[in-house]
TrEMBL record:
This is Glycogen synthase. It is an enzyme of class 2 (transferase). Belongs to the glycosyltransferase 1 family. Bacterial/plant glycogen synthase subfamily. Pfam families: Glyco_transf_5, Glycos_transf_1. It catalyses: [(1->4)-alpha-D-glucosyl](n) + ADP-alpha-D-glucose = [(1->4)-alpha-D-glucosyl](n+1) + ADP + H(+). Synthesizes alpha-1,4-glucan chains using ADP-glucose. PANTHER family: ALPHA AMYLASE DOMAIN-CONTAINING PROTEIN (PTHR45825:SF11), GRANULE-BOUND STARCH SYNTHASE 1, CHLOROPLASTIC/AMYLOPLASTIC (PTHR45825). NCBIfam families: glgA, PRK00654.1-2. Pathway: Glycan biosynthesis; glycogen biosynthesis. Its EC number is 2.4.1.21.
Amino acid sequence: MTKVLFVVSELAPLIKTGGLADVAGALPTALAEYGDEVRTLLPGYRAVMGKLGKTKVIEKYDDLFGGPAKLLACKMAGLDLLIIDAPHLYDRDGGIYLDTTGTDWADNPQRFAALSYVGAMIAETGAGGWTPDVVHGHDWQAGLTPEYLRARAVQVPFVFTIHNIAFHGNTDAGKLVALKLDGDRFTRDHFEFWGQISALKAGLMGATKITTVSRTYAEELLTPEFGIGMDGVLRDRQSDLVGIVNGIDEDIWNPATDPYITPYTTPAKKAANKKALREIFGLGPSDGPLCVLVSRLTEQKGIDLLLAALPELLSRGGQLALLGSGDPKLEVALLAAAAEHENVSVKIGYDEALSHQMMAGGDVILVPSRFEPCGLTQLYGLRYGTLPLVALTGGLADTVINASPAALASGVATGIQFFPITTQALGNAFARLADLYNDPKTWKTMQRNAMKQDVGWKASAADYHAIYTSLTETHQ
Ligand SMILES: Nc1ncnc2c1ncn2[C@@H]1O[C@H](COP(=O)(O)OP(=O)(O)O[C@H]2O[C@H](CO)[C@@H](O)[C@H](O)[C@H]2O)[C@@H](O)[C@H]1O
């Protein structure tokens, strides 16, 4: 049994902007099956504080990066939480990373340095008598943790998981003092990155073990194209880098019990959900596949490729129902496409219930990402018999079995992959999709295969458990 402190900036079901929250929310329960005890340290954003039940104050800090703060302990949704109640950092309108105008909060470096700093303090002195054997940080927001552990001479292993290397958490060198960092370590070997402080680099350099969320992404990260400036750092640390594919919460994402949908256990019974979904999106009947997409709208997600390839889908009778929010330019372009084509419908926003209805009612889940460390929506799609059409990259390469002639002949295909990641290849994939969809026997076989895939956390939690065990053994 290993006591593990998660240090993370979002956590489902309390606060979520993307897949990081899902992983942070589901993995602790899966690890408990192996006897590991996870407590999760999370900033007390306004939205979080409003949802907490009974809390216990276990620590008080006079000055946590500019103001007084408390450490609260509570239980929620089966999780043991440690919440940093620091109003000067987290109690405000707007998003958790962005202000009301969509700009990064100017004090994000301090806000997440505080998260990492409290993580290190807990590792040193414990929280209410509980001291972790391992600290497990996620993404750049937890990246400074090993610097603070080192400053306190705390010898605890630090596992660092990269969910998305595109975010570096960089800030200017003038903040060294404000962030309580050791100026002597502002070098290329530690956390200096092209003249800036990089929280991500600090985490990568200081981690005892680095994980990322699929095997293919672990390999891709070593290349300049995917490493986004950190490939050199990662090549240096390659022997400590491992890819562990994400799972999904099989209770929340279960078509047989999902409270947001008409429940089903066989693909044939998706029909009621498809009808309902078309009504929700104002789409009429059509002969082609109903494609759905649920995503943050960013460059990463290949939405521009989809827009350019849409004619191929629509010319074969396909439809698109899309839910997302993010880049205003993409939002405008999507709404324009919806206005132009009757078989395209777009909802801008974030809607958990609707995302479930889309998984249940769609024929196909689209993930045309330029890069995708793991991706979760294709996993939801598999579980719901909604076949993934995905770019061949990262976790999308590892979790979908492409409908190649060989895979179809042996009856194992679960979706469609396209490569290179271009408009033309996506357009060709839409043509393949239409052919497969028009072959009901093959389509049903693929749906049944998809629904049988193991997309839960059990196997991957075992891999994390093995890492914790090996690290605590070597540190004893
Ligand atoms: N408008 C909306 N309404 C409702 N729900 C919405 C939504 N927009 C997104 N979501 C939900 O947010 C999650 C997104 O997770 P993903 O893993 O697909 O991508 P993300 O890039 O956020 O995560 C990063 O971290 C995760 C976790 O490691 C990696 O899988 C991934 O590759 C990496 O980019 C899904 O649960 C999805 O349903």
